[in-house]
Each structure stands twice: as structure tokens, then as C-alpha cells.
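FYI - complex with magnesium ion, inputs then prediction.
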Amino acid sequence: MSIQENNQLLRFTTAGSVDDGKSTLIGRLLYDSKSIFEDQIEAVKTSSEKKGFDYVDLSLLTDGLRSEREQGITIDVAYRYFATPKRKFIIADTPGHIQYTRNMVTGASTANLAIILIDARKGLLEQTHRHSFIASLLKIPHVVVCVNKMDLVDYSEEVYNRIVADYQAFSSKLDIKDVQFVPISALNGDNVVARSENMDWYEGATLLYHLEHVHIASDFNHIDCRFPVQMVIRPHTLGFQDFRGYAGRVDGGIFKPGDEVKVLPSGFTSKIKSIELDGKSIVEAYAPMSVTMTLQDEIDISRGDMIVRPNNQPNVEQDLEVMVCWMNQKTLQSRTKVIVKHTTKECQAMVKDIQYSVDVNTLHRIEGITEIGMNDIARISLRTAQPLFFDSYRRNRQTGSLILIDPNTNETVGAGMIV
Amino acid sequence: MGSYYLPHLKELEAEAIFVIREVVSQFERPALLFSGGKDSIVLSHLAKKAFYPAKIPFPLIHIDTGHNFPETIEFRDWLIGNLSVQLIVGSVQESIDKGRVREETGVNASRNALQTVTLLDTLEAFKIDAAMGGARRDEEKARAKERFFSHRDEFGQWDPKNQRPELWNLFNGKKHHGEHFRIFPISNWTEMDVWQYIKEENIALPSLYFSHERDCVVRDEVILAKSEYLPLKEGERVQRLVVRYRTCGDMPITGAVLSNADTLELIIEEVATTRTTERGTRADDKRGETAMEDRKKAGYF
Ligand SMILES: Nc1nc2c(ncn2[C@@H]2O[C@H](COP(=O)(O)OP(=O)(O)OP(=O)(O)O)[C@@H](O)[C@H]2O)c(=O)[nH]1
Ligand SMILES: [Mg+2]
């Protein structure tokens, strides 16, 4: 571990098909960046020996559940942490198996960067396509494609170039801004932290170098002011008799004391009196800060309301078009009733129409369908019981996202991105 | 115009405060599980910030094994007074006396596993529907798998193979009657983050965390404090050592480390160069490869 006090945080996720080496790569990154403790590596060595392996299985560093260790696959996301003198990293190591796509989406939803692994022997597989498509839907701003297991294809430049070309052909149909490629061996560590001696034909940077240098400052929206109210703070104590603070997290834009604001849905306007946290005033509040705001006028505001600027307002509507990843065994049909959670608001909703689902391999639309099943990605029309205050997901990942909840089981059944 | 990005500690703080406020908004009877260790102290500090100038709107629950360090209890009582919040104590001794659990026997006996019963009984008695804890994902490989909002069935059990998806910052705390949630606002913090935050925010800690002289027994390479709860094995002898603690669990199972670090600066330096995990000093995690997962499934912290 290294000490840094004011470093940027990069959240990244792994993606790709089963056994492409995602967990091994994370183990390797942690190991080579010296983020693994002696007792952890001892435990992994012992487990590898017990399993009869003649190498240290670094995937055991993240595959922490009993069933994962027994089956040698990842089932649920593991979060790991490491730091270099340049940055702090939060890794979500996600499963490749299609059955656990919901967990991949969980890990990917908060990521700034996705590492997509491809087994050099196998090339692009259906899960490579699905995960890349999900990464583009989730608007993960940066993608690094790692062509892995280069040791098993004699570190061949031809194999690498062919996979790069295949991926580029596929990703040109996707909406991903920044794609980089690195040939690696997660098992042996080539081009992960240190440059490979086996691939002198590769002139690009190592994976860690990419992670340390990718530009992430602009990943939040600092233009459209959005402050969903989480709760109202009323102390009712001496000294704070009349205090009425609106607690929440900034989802976009920059708020300052004195700014004129408008409250949705009431439409009342006022000015920001103060922005504070723990009694200390804050000069400028921007995403993703958690603060408490007070206004100059007493207005009736409650959880689920949104504070915005009068000259820049979100959509206020009950009808929305949503791209949804469906994550439940029970299928979704027209007229299915769900609960929608969007920013700090929650309300009933009904699926009015299924427009189409997407074939993840060809990215073609499949129209005229009447239901969508587990792991399908589809565009639906949703009618909510109350208006939501939203932006398109493309414009703002916070005010453009929602989840669907089954009112009977209470399970989270869908991840929605507002078109 | 400056560049609008938050340094990592501020981002982690903002995330934790958001989660704590969600808990109060979504649940009827939340509580904070307070162990007396640095993580739950940081959590109480974050809770104070989240609601200021209002008071923390939920009680703190301490599951008292009866095997605590006296320093922990002393600190707990000071903090409760300072924050003026309600304290609920669940006593493992009472669970034993009532026959709810049986005490382990032998030299390696510990009350660690017994805490689960007392914890679940306490949550039920006070009808707590959301119990916040200071567990971090970097502590242990089963914890690395946990959601912020972690659903528990009516028996208090965790089903790690079937967790709810958790997308963006949209936390789903919906549940059926009798079920509850465990919530971990500082999931994404590392040991280093916690120490840096304690320093930055000037947070008070029990003296155990700083280097001090103590009578100890070294057992299986773990330095244990001499205490009435630790029966000595044959041939074991008591030595006076200069130590500090990296975590604060029960006296007979929490290992100390040899250390001269008596300031936060020195502790941070030590954390930066240390080569073992903080839980590496805990005998409770050494009972098998998936000891933590097994305990968590049953309802442990
Ligand atoms: N030879 C070679 N084997 C590798 C490499 N990377 C991973 N492997 C092996 O591939 C197998 C699968 O690796 P994992 O890391 O578990 O794969 P994964 O992508 O995490 O799989 P899921 O999480 O289940 O989707 C293991 O046996 C690894 O040792 C590599 O670079 N070279
Ligand atoms: Mg894996």
C-alpha cells in the first residue's frame, strides 16, 4: 500500500467470457503492484497446492465464495482495492458466465473504465459481444481490450492483430468513445504491470500505465444543475429551531450560495442561502458531493423533489423510453407492473410497450416480440404514476438511470437507461 | 475555474453519507452496530456529519461479549455521551445465562460465534429493520462480495449466491415482514483510507490503537493480551511487550502487533509498509478457508 492523500479514484470493472482470465488478471495486477499481503498470498498458495495445481492460482484472490472456489468460476462481483503513487483504484471483478450477467451489470454500473478480456485462442465470443454492448449502454467512458493468454498462442502478433481487427469491426457499431488494446498474459504477467519480454512487436503501454493515465476528470456532468432531495433535516433543537436543510447528493452542475433555484415538482423558486456539511460552509457543490442545502424562502420540499436552475430544467414526464437489461427469471411483458426507483424518487409504473430487443451478436433489432427474458436487452416504453425529473442517460448517468423492482418479490429485476 | 473533481477521501465520504441518509429515508427502525473499533467509530463520525445540525436519528447497538478490552467500553461510553445518542447493549453473557447459546470450552474457546445469536435476538427485540455496520470489502474475501444494502431473510441469513443486483447508487431496501438489511456505508474504504480519514478529520480513538506496553502471551505466533478470559496453556509465559492493535475484537482472540507507532502519522507509515492484512491477527478468521462466509451466512456482522 502506498500513502497518497489527494488522489483521484478510478473505478474499473472486468468483463468478458467465462475463463478468459478476468480474475487471474486482477490477481496479477494486485500481486505485481504489491497490493497483496503475505498472509493472503500464503493462503492462495496453500489452496492452489491443495487443488493439485502446479502454479499459483491468482483467481483465488478474488473468487472468495465457497462455491466459486469449488467450481473455479466467478459467481458474484468481488470488489478489490489498490493504489499506486498515481491513483487509487476500485476494481469490480465480475463473472463471465451468462447466468450471472446481473452481477456483471452491478459491477459495471459504477465504473469509469471496463477491461474486456478476450482469450487469444478463442477470439470474440457471444459474452464478449454482450458485455461490450452492456458497457456501451452503461456509457462506461473508457474501454481497454486485453487479448489474454498470449502465452498459449506463442505470443503471436498475427493472432493479436486479427482479434484487434475483429473487435474494431464489432465496436464500430457501438457507442464507445475510447478503446485501447493490450496483448497480455495474466498468468505470467506480460504487459500487465511490467512490459513483456516476449512481445517486442508491441509498442503500446502496459495495462497499468493505461489505468494510471486515462483522463477521467470529465466523467461527471458539471453543466446541468441537479440536486435530488434525499431527506429534510429539521433538528428541533435550541439554537436550530428554524433550521430546515435539504440533504442530498449533487447529480450534476455546480451549485453556489446565492444561486437562483427552482424546486420540482412544485415550481417554486428561491435562492440558495447556504450549502454546508457538518456545519462547515461549502463554496461550490458539484457531483458527487453529499451536502445540506438551505434556501432563503420556506418552501414545502420533501424526499424525491429536485432542486434545479430555472434556466436549465430536466424533463418532467410520465412517459419514458428506456433501454432495459432484464435480470429476472420471470419474463417482462406489456402491461407488467413494476416499481421504479429513480434518483431519490420511487413510484409505480407500467410497461406500456416492448419496442424491440437487441441481438447482442449482430446488434440487430428484433421487433414484434411480446416478452423479454433473463439477460435480454430491450427498449421499452414506461408509464409512471407520477412524473419523473430526468435527463437522458447519455447526458447524465445519475438522473438518466433507474431500476425496476418487482412489487411482489421486492427483487431488483431490471436496470434501465433512459433514452 | 478550478478542476471539479473530488479527492478520493472526499468521494468516499460523500458516498458513505449518501448511503447513511438512504438508510434513514428508506427504513423505519435503523441502527448502527457499534463494535468500538475504528471502523464503527468512523461510521458514527460520518453519521454525525450526515445529519448535522440534527442529532443522529438512530441508536447505536453494541453486542457485548463480556470479553471486551476495558479501553473499548470506556471509549464507547464517552462517545455515546459526546454524540448524545441512545445506546442499546446486547449481552452475550445474558444469552448464555438464558440458555440461548452454549459457551465454548477449552483453551481456544471464544465467544465470537455466540455473538450471532445475541445480535439477531437484539435486532428482533428492538424491531431493527436496517443494521449498519463498519465492515469493509478489503478486509476479507467474503466481505469483498457484499453489497452496500445486503438483504437478510427472516432467519437473519445471507444468501451470497443470490444477492440482489445493485445498480448505480439506486439502493433497493424493500423487504417482506420479518426480513432485514445489513448496510455497509464504508464498503469501499481500505484500511489506509480509514487511517487517513481519521487523521484528516481528527477523530478520537481508543488508546489500544496506539503503541503501549502490555503483558502478553504469544500463542501460534499471535500476540494475545494477558487477561482473565485467556486461560494459559502449559509452558506459556507472560511477557511485557510494546504493542498496538490494528483491529479491536474480543480480548482473547484479537492479536496485537509489535509497534512503536504512537501517533497517527506513524501508524499511517506503518500501515503503508505492513505486509499482512489486519484480520491476519484475528484467530476467528483462521478457523478454515471460508470461516467468514460461513459465519456471515448464519447472520454474523
Ligand atoms: N496460460 C494462461 N492461462 C491463463 C491466463 N489467464 C488465465 N488463465 C487460466 O484460465 C483459467 C480461467 O481463469 P479465471 O481468471 O478464473 O477466468 P475468469 O475470466 O475470471 O472466469 P469467470 O470469472 O468464471 O468468468 C484459469 O485456469 C487460469 O489459470 C493466461 O494468461 N495464460
Ligand atoms: Mg472470474
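Chain B touches chain A through 69 residues (CB under 8 Å). Residues A 22-23, 59, 74, 93 surround magnesium ion (ligand 2) (CB under 6 Å).
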